[in-house]
Every structure is written in structure tokens, then in C-alpha cells.
Automatic annotation (TrEMBL):
Molecular function GO terms recorded: myo-inositol:proton symporter activity
Protein name: General substrate transporter
Keyword list, A-Z: Membrane, Transmembrane, Transmembrane helix, Transport
Gene source species: Aureobasidium pullulans (Black yeast)
Lineage of source species: Eukaryota, Fungi, Dikarya, Ascomycota, Pezizomycotina
Major facilitator superfamily (MFS) profile domain sequence ranges: 49-493
Amino acid sequence: MSTINNKEFKDVKDDVFIDKLEKVDTFSDEQAELDNIETTAASKAAWLIAMTVSIGGFLFGYDTGYISSVLVTIGTSLGHELSTSEQELVTSITSGGALVGAVFAGLVADKYGRKMPIYAACVVFVIGTLLQAAAFHLPQFAIGRFVVGLGVGSAACICPLFIAEISPMRYRGRMVAFNNMSVTLGQLIASGIGAGFAHVKGDGWRATVAIGGAPPIILAVLLYFCPESPRQLVAHGRMELAEACLLKIYPTSTTQMRQAKIRSIEASIHEQTGSMADESLWKTTKRIFTTPATARAVFTACAIMAISQLGGFNTLMYYSATLFGLVGFSNATAVAIVVSGTNFLFSIVNLVLVDRFGRRAILKVTVLGMAICMLIAAVSFHYIPINAKTLELTRDVTGWPAIMVLICIICYVAFFSSGVATIAWIGTELIPTEVRAVGTMLNTVTCWSTNIIIASTFLSMMKAFTPSGAFGFYAGICLAGWILIILCYPEVSGLTLEEIQDVFSHGFGVRYAKQLRKERKLAAQEPANEKI
């Protein structure tokens, strides 16, 4: 009897062992299919979708670009000359609207999809543009600025997220970089249009503002032809549409590859959410802060975003014409185009380098460069004869310090645009799938709340602490950000969104991500070696 029981027990053990082997083989096959689909070429449709959605970035860029020229050309069009505090108000109130718009987008993006909040952004942006262009009093202009902010915030929250979710792993960085390049293109075009209408007496600034109503209309029309994010479709159980979307993105993939990708997305969602797919916003937000790995991921993304704003870049966009007029340039609006042009050109540099050299390596170099440029600019301002109370030159001759300030600002913008400007928005890839919309909302809220601080305090800070003190403060922020990047920002280029979720289960995952990328690289080389 004992012998029979032992034999039966041995048979059961063998069956369990065989079952485990079959599961391992199945997992290996699925992983191979998943790896294979990520090595296939991205379709033209995928690039066109990324470029279309990136028009949302143009809205942000055009807004930050035209306000610089409007502030120096608006004159008494609103009934009186704008004071320093009123200039800060009309500049920062857009960021306040963007903060509200980002929260709205984050709340509805998971329930209604990624496209709906983008449509809403287009509508309110057009309304806000019309309110501004037709304004003859400060309150209406300020309301228009706030309404435009609603659209900017909604688009800025969802567009990078949408692009990241629809992009193949190998091209994700470059595709999201399209969004930032679109931002910088918007800033450049707005600066150029603003400089052109600066010579139109009276209400030339109104044309600069009104032209901004065209891009959201174009985006709304083109977005109709774009599919919903495949991850969003899987999350809502629309598997056939998800596979059709994946076929558009990976046209050379097989059915098995696409099914493996869908199962990977589905497993990732179920692993993280369990039975809480329809949990409340409060529970989702609570889970972000009570789940250590998720909290670290969201903190890292938000910290990089804060660096991109508190480092001082947007003061140069919002007040560039004012700033260059302050240091003695006669045609400050035209000089501001140089800054916008540099910003655009180096966003293309980021587009080329971000997937090749990785996010972490680029951030380590560029953020340190930003700190050095701000520090040299702060020293140069010390030698420019500026009355801190009135922010006016005490004498007309400024000489080499003004040239040095211009050079430092251009170099700073080059470092910013080729690094943190884009990577701050690529940071949505760090956030786990099940909280990605809310996490992206927090990331965008970080963007706009810090943007409000910068936009509403720059001129006042220049008066209170002198230009040298203000730029020295920004240099300190950049240096602190550089230290944070060294300690907390893992390199995740070359990893799938599902693999990235595992990185922050190992602290901030700097070393783990490095090892994971190394293993993936070796695994990719094995099939090639076998063929040889």
C-alpha cells in the first residue's frame, strides 16, 4: 500500500513539474512574441498619429511665445499701461487655468479615453483666444488668458501620455519628443509673428493673439482620424479595436505578436489593479501615495517636471522681450526670436539623441549646463547698471555684460531644450498603467503650479533681490535638480512600459534599471548569435 501511495505521489509530482515546464515554455513563447513586435518597424501611421497629437504641444508653445511680445506692445489697448503686478497677473493666470485644465483631463482620461479631453482643449482654446483678441479692458483679457489656460493644461496633460501609449518601445522617446518640438515651434512662430506685428501701431497684438485660434481647429479635425490608445482600449475590454490599433502601429507584426502584446498590457493592468478596475479617484490617488513603488515613480516624474519649471526657463519665454530691453537691446522683440529659434533647433537635437543616449545621461549633462549658464548670467548682471526698484538702466552703455547675458541665456536654452524640456514630459512613461492618468495629472499639476510661482514672481523677484539674485536662485534650483537626477532617475530607454513598472519596486531603480537594460540587450543578441 505504501509503495502504491509513493508511486501515485511521484506521478503527481511529475505532472506538476511538467505543468510548470509547459507554463514556462508558454511564457517564454509569449515573451519572444512580445520582444519580436517591439523590434518591428513603426508604421507611417504611428508617426502621423504622434505628429497630429503633438499639435497639442503647439498650443502651449504659441501661448508662451506670444505673451512676451504682447507685454511690450499692448500699450494702453486695455485702457492703461499695465503695471508690473498686472503683467505678472495676465502671464500667470494662464498657468492657473492650465492647472484646472490638467486636473479635469486627468479625471476624465481613464473613463472617457485620451481623445475626449483633447477635443475639449481645442474648444476652450479657441474661445479663450477670441476673448483675448476682442478685449479692451484688463478683466476680459485676463479671463481670456485663464480660458486659454484650461485648453493648454488639458492638452499638455494628455498629449504626451497619448503619444507614449501609442508609441513602439524603440521610438517612444523620439515620438514624445515631437510634442516638445511642437511646443518650441509654437514659441518660435509666435515670437516671429509678434515681432512682425510689433511695428503695427495700436492693435497689432490682437492679430498675434487671434492667429492662435487656427491650430486647435486643425488638431480637432485631424484627431478624428486617430485611433484611441491601445492600452485604453484593452483597459475597457475592447480587444478587437485594440488589435486593429496595434496593426496600424506595427503593420508587419503577426497575429500572435499582437495577441501577446494585448495579453501583456492586460496582465500589467490586472496585476496592478486586481479587482479595483472601477475604483474611485480617491482610492487611486491614495494608492499612489501608499504604494511605495508607485509613489517613487510619480515622485521622480514630478520632480523632473518641477526642475524644468523652477529652473527659470519660462521666465525667459514669458519675459524675454522685457528682459532684453532691460539689458539695453534696442529691438528686444527681435532679439527674443533668437531665444525661441535656439529652443526649436535644440529640441530637434533631443529628438535625435533621446533614444540613442538615454534620458539619464542627457539629463546629467544638460541640467548641470543649465546651472552653470544661470550662474554666469547672475555674475554678468552684477556689472549691468540697473535700478532694482524701477528695473531700468541707469545709463545707456552696458557693454560686454549685456552680451554675456545674451550668450548665457542662449546656451541655457540650448541645454534646456535638448534635455529636461522633453524628458520632463517623457516622464509619464515612469508612471504605472493603472494610475497613469491620475499620475500624469499630478505631473501636469506640478508643471503648472510651479509655472504659476515662476510667472507671478519673476519681475517682483528681480526688484526685491536684483537680477543677479534672481538668476542665482535659478542656478541653485538647477544644481539641486542635477543632484536629484544622479540619485533618483533611472535609465528606462529600451524598456517596455510594463518593464518600467518593475523598476521602482527596487528603490528608485537606478542600478536595477541598468542591469535590466543590460539583460535585455544580451537577450536581443542571442538570436543573432544563433543564426551565425
